[in-house]
Write a structure and sequence with these properties.
The protein has about 725 residues and is mostly helical. It is built from 32 helices and 6 strands. The longest helix has about 30 residues.
Length: about 725
């Protein structure tokens, strides 16, 4: 979250859950070499798979001649057209407009110097004791480039010295500010019209008009047209153009009889190996070209958009293995079959990539692998849309996958999408029979169910290998009979109840802003697990009216014990094998905040002793939250504790409490590393207030009925909630936060 703060920025440190040895973050050279070898092996395997089922043909034709007859494509083929690519690159270069150089500071300095000289001249004219008012106005009008009107010259002469100094200073400031931004020749008029927006609004209108006149005279273009930069931009535009993929379908006319062969025709004939002496090697090279193009595209994507995947041996290996295995299954099973191409669960790769990585990576890898898999297969256009629709519908339906039931919904959605594509292609065909159509529809339904089931199973086993957490794991960790939760319930019941309340708060907020609600709930359940090591030091676990164990401790000792529940929680999490994502909630739920009560005590005692206090001794180790989910738990933890301690008497006080808590975290820089927006925080505030109001709303006091139907008046009764709040407030603030 981008937010200004008056507090010094805290250094960003990795959480213990994410700290890895240098070898893991910076792979050694042999790891890079191994990754390169794996990529080469994957490329060769893919090329070999692409050659499977390829046929060849040979014709006698020469470039530049007139085609003696029609030449038809023997099969559907997609290739990279260098001719069309070059044409597209030239068009992209011509589309680039003029490029201007960055602002020239020498121009800005020159204009400022000219203004200073003009201002000095005006000051001299104003101070000339021997010139008449008419002569002074004439001298002001004669200043080159200033073009003062008689009224403006008269106004300048009638100004007192203090006002004139203020106008000079404002004119220089406005000119310097505007000249810092690029101003092109064609933008000068617009910049001059925008001068009033930069003038101090406290100036009177007439004085502001004089400032505008002075700045207008010396505002000049500082960004000039650069032929070199324009040429470089056009060159970059050429380089950004991706190779043009040309598809020629089976039976399509490549060249017609009597047609003069163009460079594009020659290129197409070479791709098909139809030129004399090129049939054999062309039939082998054409699939290799397509494979290389796909791998180059994937490599560029990973290098430019997802370098963290290249930096992780496991992620890189998984991507290669999943892609090659999917391609192998498609090339070996689809060729020569009628129903099997519709049954093959290609969407498993798409769903798995989406669940393990993200939608962009899924799309970048799925589309090329799908194209390679269907290369030169019968009904390739239909199968391409069929599998693409199934994959996209599965990804869309799984975009908010927080329950196992969403996989069932995704399976049904994929089955429906596949069936609709089959109907769209098969119904218009007169050769379609009912039995064949029903068989393909059954294959589409089986495809959706099989793809979703395989994705769920593979995700469950592969996600932990990549250090991720699955929905099944989260559901398992949320069970009350988990050993750590059972220990928390038995040894620190107050903390357990607090964790449940925080989980409910954070869950509601997560649902309101579209965060991962299940992850937030599970993280909240475990965020204070370290308190089981010494539960008696936290007020929620102490008996009512019991003396606090912190009373006989120094503030430093008390703070050390309170802070210790974070590293102890991480230790317990590692011992019990909690996923790293859950460990983040333990490490980040206090961020780098101070233990406020102990720090305040230390300051009071230090003031009496005249000794300094080290804030580091009272600061949580952090790091601050680095995701929306951990930030929500931090805010929910603080709001729930304050609401339980202070017992706000009405909704207005409750909202003020929540808003102050969120604002304190913002000012302390605790949300700077998250992507929470101000709109999100307002939504979180509303969710917290609604949830807390349902828990800590005022209770109706009923008369107490004693023996003999004697009642105790309400004024003589004490509210348990109020008494608890009064008892919890100082102790909770002191010992639980």
């Amino acid at each position: 979250m981008s937010h200004g703060s008056d507090h010094p920025a805290m250094p960003h440190a990795l959480s213990p859950a994410e700290q890895t040895p240098p070898r893991a973050s910076r792979p050694r050279r042999w790891v890079r070499v191994l990754q390169f070898l794996l990529a080469v092996v994957a490329l060769l395997l893919s090329a070999a798979l692409m050659w499977y089922g390829v046929t060849e043909d040979s014709l006698t034709l020469h470039a530049g001649e007139v085609a003696p007859r029609d030449v038809l494509a023997p099969y559907t083929h997609t290739f990279t057209s260098q001719v069309l690519t070059q044409q597209k690159r030239e068009a992209a270069a011509q589309a680039i407009t003029k490029v201007y150089a960055p602002p020239d500071t020498s121009i800005s300095r020159r204009q400022l110097a000219r203004m200073r000289a003009a201002l000095a001249l005006i000051s001299a004219i104003r101070a000339d004791p021997y010139a008449t008012a008419e002569q002074k106005r004439h001298d002001l009008a004669a200043i080159q480039g200033l073009h003062l009107t008689p009224d403006e010259a008269r106004a300048l002469l009638t100004l007192d010295d203090k006002t004139w100094e203020k106008i000079q200073h404002e004119a220089l400031r406005v000119l310097e500010t505007m000249m810092r931004s690029p101003i092109r020749e064609d933008q000068l008029d617009a910049a001059r019209r925008n001068i009033p927006a930069f003038i101090d609004l406290t100036l009177p209108e007439k004085q502001a008009a004089l400032v505008q006149r002075l700045v207008t005279a010396y505002l000049a273009p500082n960004s000039l047209y650069s032929p070199q930069l324009t040429e470089a931009a056009r060159q970059r535009a050429k380089e950004r153009v991706l190779p043009v993929q040309r598809t020629i379908h089976r039976g399509e006319t490549i060249v017609q009889r009597g047609q003069v062969l163009t460079p594009a025709d020659i290129e197409a004939l070479k791709e098909y190996g139809l030129l004399q002496g090129t049939a054999r090697w062309q039939a082998l090279v054409s699939p290799l070209i397509l494979t290389l193009a796909a791998y180059v595209l994937l490599t560029l994507y990973l290098a430019l958009r997802r370098p963290q995947i290249l930096g992780s041996f496991r992620r890189f290996t998984l991507l290669l293995a999943a892609s090659v295995l999917t391609l192998a299954g498609a090339r070996l099973l689809l060729v020569g079959h009628t129903v099997l191409p519709y049954l093959y669960p290609f969407a498993t790769l798409s769903l798995l990539l989406f669940l393990l990585f993200d939608a962009e990576t899924d799309l970048a890898l799925t589309v090329p692998i799908l194209g390679l898999s269907l290369y030169r297969t019968p009904h390739s256009a239909e199968l391409l849309l069929y599998h693409l629709f199934i994959s996209l519908s599965g990804v869309v339906l799984l975009s908010r996958a927080q329950r196992i039931g969403t996989f069932v919904s995704a399976a049904l959605g994929m089955a429906v999408s596949g069936s609709m594509v089959i109907l769209a292609f098969r119904l218009p065909s007169p050769s379609t029979d009912l039995n064949g159509l029903l068989t393909l529809l059954a294959a589409a339904v089986s495809n959706g169910v099989l793809a979703a089931a395989l994705a769920l199973l593979l995700h469950y086993f592969l996600a932990p290998w990549l250090g991720k957490i699955t929905q099944l794991q989260l559901l398992e960790l949320s069970r009350p009979d988990q050993p750590l939760l059972q220990r928390l319930l038995q040894e620190a019941p107050g903390t357990y109840q607090h964790s449940l309340q925080v989980a409910n708060l954070a869950d509601q907020a997560a649902r309101a802003i579209g965060a991962d609600a299940l992850l937030v709930r599970v993280g909240a359940l475990y965020h204070d697990i370290g308190k089981v090591v010494a539960p008696q030091y936290y007020i929620e676990n102490q008996p009512p009216q019991a003396p606090s164990p912190h009373q006989n401790l120094t503030p430093e000792e008390s703070a050390r014990i309170i802070i210790q529940h974070v590293p102890e929680g991480l230790r317990l999490a590692r011992e019990h094998g909690l996923p790293r994502r859950i460990q983040d909630f333990i490490a980040e739920h206090h961020g780098t905040m101070l233990t406020g009560y102990q720090y305040a005590r230390a300051l009071e005692e230090a003031k009496k002793r005249q000794t300094p206090v080290d804030p580091a001794a009272f600061r949580y180790p952090g790091p601050p939250p680095r995701s929306r989910e951990t930030a929500l738990v931090m805010l929910a933890d603080a709001c729930e504790a304050r609401a339980r301690a202070e017992r706000p008497p009405n909704p207005q006080a409750l909202r003020r409490l929540v808003r102050e808590t969120i604002t304190d975290r913002i000012r302390a820089g605790q949300l700077s590393d998250t992507d929470l927006t101000l709109r999100d925080l307002r939504t979180v505030e509303d969710a917290f207030v609604a949830a807390l109001q349902g828990v800590y709303h005022p209770r109706i006091r009923y008369p107490r009925v004693l023996k003999g139907e004697k009642t105790i008046p309400l004024r003589e009764q004490a509210l348990p909630e109020t008494a608890d709040a009064a008892a919890d407030l100082p102790a909770e603030t002191a010992h639980s936060r």
